[in-house]
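ok trying again, last paste got cut off:
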Amino acid sequence: MDWQSTSEDTVPSSIVSERHRLAMLGKPPATGAWRDGDDPGHRSLVTLGDLPLESGGSLARTRIAYETWGELDADRGNAVLLLHALTGDSHVVGPASTGHPTAGWWNGVVGPGLAIDTDRWFVVAPNMLGGCQGSTGPSSFAPDAVEWGSRFPHLTIRDQVEAQVAFSDALGVEQWAAVVGGSMGGMHALEWGVGHPDRLERLAVLAAPPLASADQIALNTVQGEAVKMDPGWRDGDYHDAPDGEGPYRGLALARRMALLNYRSPDELNARFGRAWQSEVSPLGGPGRFQVESYLDFHGNKFTRRFDAGSYVTLLGAMNSHDVGRGRGGVEAALARVSARALVLGIDSDRLFPVADQRTIARLLPHGLDGGDAAVISSEFGHDGFLIENAAVGGHLRRLLET
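nice, full thing came through this time. structure:
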């Protein structure tokens, strides 16, 4: 579910501590969202019009931000759709820049000669509906030229996929050569396979479940409540707060909570142990453990690139995930999938355990590995699908070569 792994996740803790200190200088903005008038970077924007929602309402003037790599063939048969995780965006490849607050989240997987070879494939990555990097979300301006804020409707995974379908139509792609997604993006990819089986040839579901379990809903709920308990939340209408202060404390806390689900206990224990950040003894006064500094750094950095309203909205969408809802259950729903499918899990994933992927693989008619999931070994927990480029890339190559 995490955004991406960067070099900051492997540098010494003392350096992280210094970066944390620098990141703490100055108050975060009310929102870290990309806003109209900001440098567009490499993103393009397409307006889809009004989008009907599962709730019975609609979202007016829906817009999707996206990036592409490679060239589309004349027959439009080489297009690959990449769907990002909860706090990711369309910036899959490339460095951080004025228009993109973070480096690409799959630089080691997408590109010339890599697993998703942009010399062969035309790769398209949209920012999901409800996000905050150009697609319509709570920080976007509604038709009345005021941020949606608390007026932004509840979204489901299916709503977001329907926006992606409309986006595909706008691009003129009738069928994707592959739809690939990890974590929340894996939920979207699975929904594509079930809801629109004729529109994709291949499917890759990475580190995602067939439905959101009670445990997973609980983890999302407490993160959402951490945001809402911040006085700066203002019921979601903080974008134009007189003091310019948004719910950054609650958002940073939610991010720190999430990181504990994305990484494995073994990794955190091996990496930090009980190392102390300062000269002061943990028994003799104030000070910090290194793992505390690590969590605080990432929490505070996150507030400068994400929007609290989007975070709450996307957590709610994840909680809605159930491919079997209204379709006779998970087994009946997955029987609809006609695409050749790769299902991949991480052995140390405590957020979406391998059992979730094995359930999906067992029920898909055309699994790349028969009735089982491909499982990679990683110390990094759930984030392994973003970090273990060689292992993940090897499995994606298998799928794309079929």
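cool. The chain has one domain: 7-400. The chain is about 35% helix and 15% strand.
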